């Protein structure tokens, strides 16, 4: 069975970056199966990339190799790492982009990528996705043990996750991500709400009333706002057949409150 390598970057599709990374991988590990998670992360948006990885990696088979390149510190002293968990491998810059996913895994080893034997020659200071992360992923797919790439390190940089605050069953959270439909994905889950009184919560975004939790978009008329539990398990500020981001002027970190009525 071919080894799966996923790619998650902020490179977009207008330039050669993604294609060249795939070329490097297939030159070294021609039988690998490359799957794009997304390349539409806003440039340099580590938090968005961390969220996308966190909600997607677990849907891939055991043994998958996840390569994340959202790397505004490329060429600086920031470390490059490969992390082996019980089920998967994660590769990327040590800037927090891997951390939200890693927090829910059992980590076996963390290796700093230092051995140039496994990189491309003449490593660029601006494209470690091509010169370091892609070849390392390909060599792992070919069976190279991660210890070959450098020394073991004890920890990785953790991007703080914005946990909601709770007071008298009222929850104060924020928007984590705006998806392409204009839905505002919050950091609020069932664990923050009284599950026996979900229908009693009123949600506000940017201090504007949104509505109550519904079961589907179609439970409100087109153009009307609502709150849904999304496929990731986080509650979302939505508009049926419209954009909640536009209606409520949402962006990442916009405040969201859930008040128990």
Question: Helices, strands, pairings?
Answer:
Blueprint (H helix, E strand, L loop, with lengths): L3 E6 L7 H12 L4 E6 L7 H9 L10 E5 L10 E6 L3 E5 L5 H4 L4 E6 L15 H14 L23 E3 L2 E9 L5 E3 L14 E5 L2 E4 L1 E2 L10 E5 L5 E5 L4 H5 L6 E6 L1
Parallel strand pairs: 1-2, 1-3, 3-5, 12-13
Antiparallel strand pairs: 4-5, 4-6, 7-8, 8-9, 8-15, 9-14, 10-11, 10-15, 13-14
Notable features of this structure?
Rossmann fold, Elongation Factor Tu (Ef-tu), domain 3, alpha+beta, 17% helix, 5 helices, nine-stranded mixed β-sheet, single chain
Architecture overview:
- The chain is an alpha+beta fold and 261 residues long.
- It has two domains: 146 residues, 3-Layer(aba) Sandwich (Rossmann fold); 96 residues, Bacterial fluorinating enzyme like (Elongation Factor Tu (Ef-tu), domain 3), CATH 2.40.30.
- Strands 7, 8, 9, 10, 11, 12, 13, 14 and 15 form a nine-stranded mixed beta sheet that branches. It has a six-stranded mixed beta sheet with strand order 2-1-3-5-4-6, sandwiched between helices.
- Helix 1 links the parallel strand 1 and strand 2.
- Helix 1 packs parallel to helix 4.
- The model has no long low-confidence stretch (mean pLDDT 97).
């Amino acid at each position: 069975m071919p080894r799966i390598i996923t790619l998650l970057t902020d490179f977009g599709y207008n330039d050669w970056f993604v294609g060249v990374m795939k070329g490097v991988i297939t030159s070294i590990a021609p039988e690998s199966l490359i799957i794009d998670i997304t390349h539409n992360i806003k440039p340099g948006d580590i938090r968005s990339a961390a969220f996308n990885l966190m909600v997607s990696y677990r849907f891939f088979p055991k043994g998958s190799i996840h390569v994340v390149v959202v790397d505004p510190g490329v060429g600086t002293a920031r470390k490059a790492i490969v992390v082996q968990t019980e089920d998967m491998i994660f590769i990327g810059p040590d800037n927090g982009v891997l951390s939200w996913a890693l927090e829910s895994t059992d980590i076996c080893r963390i290796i700093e990528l230092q051995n140039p034997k496994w990189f491309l020659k003449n490593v660029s200071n601006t494209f470690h996705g091509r010169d370091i992360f892609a070849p390392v992923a390909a060599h792992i797919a070919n069976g190279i043990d991660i210890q070959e790439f450098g020394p073991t390190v004890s920890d990785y940089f953790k991007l703080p996750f914005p946990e909601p605050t709770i007071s008298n069953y009222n929850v104060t959270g924020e928007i984590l991500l705006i998806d392409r439909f204009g839905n505002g994905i919050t950091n609020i889950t069932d664990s923050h709400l009284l599950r026996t009184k979900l229908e009693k919560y009123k949600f506000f975004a940017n201090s504007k009333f949104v509505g109550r939790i519904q079961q589907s978009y179609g439970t409100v008329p087109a153009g009307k706002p609502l709150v849904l539990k999304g496929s990731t398990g986080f509650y979302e500020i939505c508009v049926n057949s419209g954009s909640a981001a536009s209606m409520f002027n949402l962006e990442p970190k916009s405040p969201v409150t859930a008040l128990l009525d």
